[in-house]
Design a protein that fits this description.
Elements (H helix, E strand, L loop, with lengths): L4 E6 L3 H7 L8 E6 L2 H5 L6 H14 L6 E2 L7 H11 L7 H8 L1 H11 L7 E4 L4 H6 L7 E5 L9 E3 L2 H14 L1 H11 L16 E5 L4 E10 L2 E12 L6 E6 L6 H18 L4 E10 L4 E8 L4 H11 L4 H8 L15 E9 L4 E4 L3 H10 L4 E4 L18 E10 L5 H9 L3 E5 L7 E4 L1
Parallel strand pairs: 1-2, 1-3
Antiparallel strand pairs: 4-7, 5-6, 5-7, 8-9, 8-11, 9-10, 10-13, 11-12, 13-16, 14-17, 15-16, 17-18
Helix pairs in contact: 4-5, 5-6, 6-10
Length: 440
């Protein structure tokens, strides 16, 4: 009888557990959750050392071998998992290479070494420095400002002038410590390069805005080899501020452009010394100038990609992450799934308000009858005040996330529009106008 190999996934959710059922990693593998998802994603204050102690205690108390720790959430999970793996001499990227991408300024320095022609102008600054508010950051408006470390897209602002800059600073100063201090705890454990010292977890980065068509490759580095999992289109809302939908496989840029993006991704990963782990990158392609610009690199598989891989390729990208973590080469199988294309689609509103009603179980059953294999994640419940919800995009309040499949890429917009008709939301915006019945 083969020995069972135990894989630990921090913050494993029910949906992710269901996606793992599609993974073909052999009968000898058992999947376990490590810590709870709320502690890793919803905490008002992150205490990294406390999370690390709790995770160590759970692993030490486990009656069996610990053979891999696989991350799929943003910080702190993205750092916690490789730390735990390193302590047990398990395959994992080095902590330094992970932190070099987690730290947005450090990451830009690495990109500037590897692919300087694809990096926008950028500058680090202290949001608490009064001189910054008076004199700016040395870059012309418009620009993006964001913490060097945040959770998802929190505290990222497009700033078009001095007034917007001051408003963004006010919000950042109020909230940046939630993640920033925990990130500083981790940075203190390594020897940070001279060029990065002084740019702490409560510092920010300003960047020139790059525009165009947004796409995202997901890849892995396995024992020095570069492996491609898939390519995704990242569509934005009409105002250009917010993520609107994720479509797989990508069709919005030519194959030659995708190839250039893969070359850039590999160069950056190698520059950082990243190996034995998964990553996803984000790029913009300006069709008019044929220039590509790198937005960022994340050192993990994307959970947003997982169900889309299942629908199109027949297996979750967890399979690739588990393979790398067990010292096995990942082997993507494009096109082996039920659908020709798939999308992650967000339903949201731009105006604050109180949730009065959300789709009922009956609504969800009717949706499943019409669109089998659709996954709906409601982000709100009756009584919620939208502006008080955690982890919200600054420009839009997300009501639900829907994962859907279609026969081919061209059908995705129509399927999404028809699907929304089964998901009614009632939002009271508290003004004199009639309620916005977000019945879509």
């Amino acid at each position: 009888m083969a020995m069972v190999m135990n894989i630990f996934v921090p913050g494993l959710t029910r949906q992710q557990h269901d996606e793992l059922r599609t993974v073909d990693v052999g009968d000898e593998v058992s999947i376990h959750s490590l810590l709870d998802v709320d502690s890793l994603t919803q905490a008002d204050h992150l205490d990294f050392q406390s999370l690390l102690r709790r995770a160590r205690a759970e692993l030490d108390a486990f009656d069996g071998s610990v053979d891999a720790v696989v991350p799929h959430w943003d910080f702190p999970t993205s750092v916690l998992a490789p730390m735990l793996a390193a302590e047990r001499s398990l395959p994992s990227p080095s902590i330094d290479s992970i932190l070099s991408f987690e730290h947005k300024y450090w990451s830009r320095l690495i990109q500037n070494q590897a692919i300087p022609e694809q990096v926008p102008r950028f500058a680090a600054f202290d949001p608490f420095d009064p001189e910054v508010e008076r004199s700016g950051v040395g870059l012309p408006f418009p620009l993006w400002i964001k913490p060097v470390k945040s959770h998802s897209s929190q505290l990222g602002f497009e700033v078009r002038g001095e007034e917007g800059f001051r408003d963004a600073l006010e919000v950042i100063r109020r909230e940046i410590r939630t993640v920033g201090h925990a990130f500083d705890e981790v940075l203190s454990t390594i020897d940070v390069p001279e060029s990065v010292r002084g740019v702490t977890g409560t510092s920010c980065i300003a960047e020139q805005i790059i525009t165009g068509t947004q796409v995202a490759p997901e890849v892995s580095m396995f024992q020095g080899d570069f492996v491609v999992h898939g390519f995704f289109d990242m569509r934005r809302s009409e105002d250009g501020h917010s993520f609107d939908s994720l479509c797989y496989p990508a069709r919005s840029v030519p194959p030659e452009v995708r190839d250039r993006m893969l070359v850039a991704t590999e160069r950056v990963l190698r520059e950082a010394g990243f190996d034995n782990g998964c990553a996803n990158a984000e790029f913009m392609w300006d069709e008019r100038t044929d220039r590509i610009g790198m937005i960022e690199v994340n050192t993990r598989i994307s959970q947003s990609h997982s169900d889309l891989f299942v629908k199109v390729d027949g297996t979750s990208n967890h399979e690739y992450a588990i393979a790398v973590a067990l010292g096995r080469r990942p082997r993507p199988k494009p096109g082996a799934g039920r659908f020709g294309a798939a999308a992650k689609h967000l339903i949201g509103v731009h105006k604050d308000g109180t949730v009065r009603a959300v789709p009922t179980d009956r609504d969800l059953v009717r949706l499943q009858d019409e669109f089998p294999d659709t996954v709906v994640q409601l982000a709100v419940k009756p009584g919620d005040r939208l502006s008080e919800l955690p982890n919200q995009d600054p420009y839009r309040y997300v009501l639900a996330t829907v994962y859907l499949g279609a026969a081919d890429y061209a059908e995705l917009p129509d399927v999404a529009a028809r699907m929304e008709g089964f998901l009614p939301f009632d939002i009271d915006h508290g003004d004199e106008e009639p309620r916005d019945r977000r019945t879509v």
